[in-house]
What does this fold into?
Amino acid sequence: MSAIFFLIGCSVFIALIFLAAFFWANKTGQHEDTYTPSIRILFDDEPPQVPEGEEETLDVRTPE
Amino acid sequence: MKIGTKTSNSTKCYHCGDTLAGTVYEADGHVFCCVGCQSVYRILSSNNMQQYYRYNTHPGKKLRERSERYEYLDEPTIADKLIDFKNDEITMVTFYIPSIHCSSCIWLLEHLYKLHPAVVASQSDFLKKQVNVTFKHPDLSLRELVELLANVGYEPKITLQDVVKAGRKFSQKGLIAKIAVAGFCFGNSMMLSFPEYFGMAAFEAKYSMFFGWMNLGFALPVLLYSGRDYFQSAWHSLRHRQLNLDVPLALGILVLFVRTAWEILSATGPGFADTLCGLVFFLLVGRWVQQRTYHHLSFERDYRSYFPVAVTRLGAANAKPVPLAEISVGDRLLIRSNEVIPADAILLKGQAAIDFSFVTGESEPVEKVLGEIIYAGGRQLGEAIELEVVKPVSQSYLTKLWNNDAFKQYKKRFRTFSNVVSQYFTLVLLAIAITAMAYWFLRDDPAKAWGAFTAVLIIACPCALALSTPFTLSVALRVFDRHGFYVKNTAAVEQLAAVDCLVFDKTGTISSPSAARMRFEGQLQAGELAMVVSVCQNSNHPLSRELVKWAGPMELMPIGNYQETGGKGIEAEVHSNRVRIGSAAFTGARDAAGASPTGSRIYIAINNEVKGFFIVEQPWREGLREVMGELAKPYDLHLVSGDNAKERERLREIFPPDADLLFGKLPAQKLEYINKLQHTGSKVCMFGDGLNDAGALRQADLGIAVSDDINNFSPGCDAILDGRSFVLLPRFLRFAKDAVKVIHMSFGISLTYNVIGLSFAVMGTMSPLFAAVLMPLSTVTIIGFTTVVAHAYAAKNQLNNIRS
It folds into this structure.
């Protein structure tokens, strides 16, 4: 049953790693702007050739 | 923004989406409404950036007349104030760009390096409407960068009071870190407490010591780090001989920790570590909900964000842009068309036609002759003029308001509901705790006495009470926000519910500057109207645009020899007819002032024959009559206008008979009037829009700035109301009252929980499990109740639909 000391130790240690990761994310400003990256990821590197008149717009909504 | 729709490219401008009328400009088979849109397209297409048009159809905004000139950015003293960082090679700067509105904007602003190789990187923040640019300053100056942005339609807004920098001061990072620690400890200590709650077999009992010590370890950072603010706030409050809600909270947290530590150290019980962590966690979440604010709006603006950053000073040899602070009495300034006059000055040269609408509320431009004093804050509409400064910027007529002592010391004092309640709450709580302790001492049971005393302080810790206000009012803030009403903080919502007297400004507040009504007096044939519209089509003056809009689509004629005389009028030749449009003096008409009581006039002369004039009437905001009708009953209504009394009769009909209508009031008189109302015991809410209302907005218990473009300047205030939402005002006021009602109800619920808990606590029979269940249960009930009921009230007031 002394395994429980080890297991609890492990679980708290892993939880501490996550807490540290959260602190790091918070400190580097990853929670500052939660909207723009979601659009940025949709941009293409090179524009594919779309025939004239069949252009489609991305369904990107802006929050109102 | 259009979403996913295909629009025929032939009738709308490829860039901005405006309906095409008259002359059409073409490039690469696309059509454009004006040279501005075409030139932006040319810039983008020559840099292989047509992708801009792929993410949204018509992503552009019409290029307005460039409102500023940027020579001043070449002055190192000014530029240094704007940039964030600079070394030998690169400069980093953050701009606020109001025209950011869609994903194409983000794309363009993040691909600036395609436009100019000296741009190293650029990153935009959509919600804050900001872009952060890193560029190599040896190859690209700050001024060139700003001009580059302006040329593609993204003109940064640069003001003395930099909104970008002010917004950055406020950060929730510290609070979020505290929440993270509390949440981490809460989760872990709850897990370690479960064995105790579920009961342990005899052979497992040896672990309970281990669990207890672990729990104590988790409670320590919560007490010392996460809960620190509560102790500081409680101590601060006690030193000022007040009892705010943080006093019982801090007391509860402290007692929880002491009793937990005592039980664990003396091995007499499991303690309340998980309750302690959970309590602090929920409290901090409540605080976080309350603190969320609008990044993109500034409620603290003063004249500095309206005035230009720099102004051109004429020296003996040359003209040089200087920062406003360096201007002293006797300096000669050059004010170009559309620039704001920064200090009280005497007109030395040129024709001044000053638009004072923002300062005085007067809607028509004022003509000034040489030698007259021009007050700061006006905008020159005509040609460039030269002025001599007679008062420094900070001592000018308008800016004096801010340097007024009363204005500086002034701080809004409003006791929120929870502040009022906490006074009594703490005293009653202490009385119950001491009574319970005394009772058990008298019965000679000291162990139970201490148990009961601590249990009372723990169980009655007003966690649910502390959460009811933030959660209810944050729902209210979001509901208001969705409907174009931006309230500064939750206390302002409570204040909104408490006001009983509404004071309105006139121009720009209850009259709408955008949707003017127009009629023509005189004789004008159909062909002649087309001529007039063809000429007006080329002007950016608001009245010209108004006239074109009024005339509707029509066959346009080619024009030649177009000339615009700022502040006076425009002229051009149409089919060899000379068309002059503008003021009476410009067209050679006899000025019949007084014949018509209201509005601005546009005179028309064709071949030197005056045909008549258009009257532009400033209409009231949509639904003004209904709004006033609805507000007349519950509120005391007043009108305080800086304009003259020419519209008194029309307003008399709209306002209730007992309302006070005052005209021709100076900014200081408006402030004085609010003050007078407050002395009669009224809680005053002021509605205004301009600098002239700034003093009154600050003095009032609640100042609401009405603005048609929330990104533009609005004076310092507690809330900003989008002009289009003016008609919803009665519903906003009702909803604010309902929100306060919800707080009262949830207070009742949390009190019920307290009574239940207390009845156990005073008996000295409260178990850790009981506390561990009751505390989160009451918290969740309150959060759920306030959210659901507040939304229900929003629906009742028809505020549930998102404005289309």
User: Anything to note?
Assistant: Chain B has six domains: 1-63, 71-158, 173-294+414-463+741-778, 303-408, 472-512+621-737, 517-617.
